[in-house]
């Protein structure tokens, strides 16, 4: 390669104008060099020479390949030539072994041109990125370990959960047969002995029957709760308003004597599992129906509100309500805030609803006050 600047030989005595420049260069804190068109060092900082185990004053006049370790020298020289051709600048990363330790460097090289735009030298500097890379590596390792641990715990937890669910499912399932047998035989006794029983004994029998019916209902609810997490979630567009209308018609069919005003939109299409949402609305509207039982003018409303990108659905009633602050785990199983004699129930309904909503990725919450009715809100997809 021809050179516009004559190569500076090692033994060339520095001119008086070079000395301050060379001295300034040597004192630069960053590893820095300038090389001529042939790739011979013109100036190097002591920080640069130190990386190579040399003195800054030794380098001027030597070529990049003579000073740098073999492969690195060849590579740097290649880049040096490319830069002279492109007259551009380059940034690349390089691992370099310094005193037996691998170090990460970011190398910046750029072509220096004269006033006419002709290349006259290449200057470069190096940034030691080792600490930064090591910190990143440590953070990455910690993050990986954390993710691994979380995944492990999640696997353990879901295995335990599945075991518990399978256990409660089979316990509930196996309890059903003996409970039904007790109920069946008690009914037989009632039918066959009927009038022959003393009034106290007939009373005992009625208690046995009531309790077995209640237990049967409870087992049914528990089985339904356990089933919610089984099976696939089949999301399709569902008209929740039509579903709510059907549920309310069913409730009115069972208690035709009750007068309940209802308010529903023409339609409310949501992407959800129709079967599961039917169970959720059965429970929410069932509660609204039950807890307005003592209201002279019962009012039940189903509707939706648009909030940012999410849709919030709600079921509102003007019934007995409850004190939110004492409602604790409102959506936990067997949590009830009214006396059984006032409003019967097993306390599994809202736990079932919450599971259904969670399976859809949504959330559920309530607003209520004693004697002021209750509103249950829910979404069907995760919102940010
Ligand atoms: N709309 C409502 N108005 C007033 N209280 C309510 C309403 N919905 C729920 N609650 C309170 O929350 C409790 C839990 O409701 P949940 O539906 O889980 O049980 P439940 O209705 O008592 O029994 P079931 O298992 O038969 O549904 C109720 O017992 C009641 O105290
Ligand atoms: Mg209920």
TrEMBL record:
Gene3D superfamilies: 1.10.287.130, Histidine kinase-like ATPase, C-terminal domain (3.30.565.10), PAS domain (3.30.450.20). Its main location: membrane. GO terms for cellular component: plasma membrane. SUPFAM superfamilies: ATPase domain of HSP90 chaperone/DNA topoisomerase II/histidine kinase (SSF55874), Homodimeric domain of signal transducing histidine kinase (SSF47384), PYP-like sensor domain (PAS domain) (SSF55785). Transmembrane segments: none annotated. It catalyses: ATP + protein L-histidine = ADP + protein N-phospho-L-histidine. It is an enzyme of class 2 (transferase). It comes from Pigmentiphaga humi. Keywords: Kinase, Membrane, Phosphoprotein, Transferase. InterPro entries: BphY/WalK/GraS-like (IPR050351), HATPase_C_sf (IPR036890), HATPase_dom (IPR003594), His_kinase_dom (IPR005467), HisK_dim/P_dom (IPR003661), HisK_dim/P_sf (IPR036097), PAS (IPR000014), PAS-like_dom_sf (IPR035965). CDD domains: HisKA (cd00082), PAS (cd00130). The gene is cph1. This is histidine kinase. Residues 1-21 are annotated as: Disordered. It is a multi-pass membrane protein.
């Amino acid at each position: 390669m021809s050179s516009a600047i004559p190569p500076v030989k090692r033994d060339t005595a520095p001119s008086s104008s070079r000395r301050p420049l060379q001295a300034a260069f040597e004192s630069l804190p960053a590893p820095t060099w300038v090389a001529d068109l042939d790739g011979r060092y013109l100036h190097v900082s002591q920080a640069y020479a130190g990386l190579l185990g040399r003195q800054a004053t030794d380098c001027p006049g030597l070529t990049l390949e003579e000073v740098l370790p073999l492969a690195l020298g060849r590579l740097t020289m290649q880049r040096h030539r490319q830069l002279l051709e492109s007259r551009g600048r380059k940034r690349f990363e390089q691992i370099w072994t310094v005193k037996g330790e691998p170090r990460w460097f970011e190398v910046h090289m750029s072509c220096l041109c004269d006033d006419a735009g002709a290349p006259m030298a290449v200057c470069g500097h190096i940034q030691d990125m080792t600490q930064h890379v090591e910190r990143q590596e440590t953070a990455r390792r910690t993050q990986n370990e954390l993710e691994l641990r979380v995944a492990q715990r999640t696997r353990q937890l879901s295995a335990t959960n599945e075991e518990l669910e399978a256990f409660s499912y089979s316990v509930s399932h196996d309890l059903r047969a003996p409970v039904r047998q007790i109920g069946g035989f008690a009914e037989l006794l009632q039918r066959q002995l009927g009038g022959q029983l003393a009034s106290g004994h007939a009373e005992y029998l009625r208690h046995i029957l009531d309790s077995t019916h209640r237990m049967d209902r409870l087992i049914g609810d528990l089985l339904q709760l356990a089933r919610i997490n089984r099976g696939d979630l089949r999301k399709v567009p569902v008209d929740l308003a039509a579903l709510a209308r059907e549920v309310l018609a069913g409730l009115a069919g069972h208690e035709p004597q009750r007068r309940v005003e209802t308010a529903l939109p023409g339609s409310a299409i949501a992407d959800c599992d129709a079967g599961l949402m039917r169970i959720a609305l059965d429970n929410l509207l069932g509660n609204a129906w039950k807890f307005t039982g003592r209201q002279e003018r019962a009012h039940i409303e189903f509707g939706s509100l648009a909030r940012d990108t999410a849709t919030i659905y709600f079921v509102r009633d003007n019934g007995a309500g409850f004190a939110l602050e004492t409602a604790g785990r409102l959506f936990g199983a067997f949590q009830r805030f009214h006396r059984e004699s006032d409003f019967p129930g097993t306390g599994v309904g809202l736990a079932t609803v919450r599971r259904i909503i969670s399976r859809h990725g949504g959330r559920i919450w309530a607003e209520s006050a004693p004697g002021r009715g209750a509103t249950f809100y829910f979404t069907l997809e995760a919102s940010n």
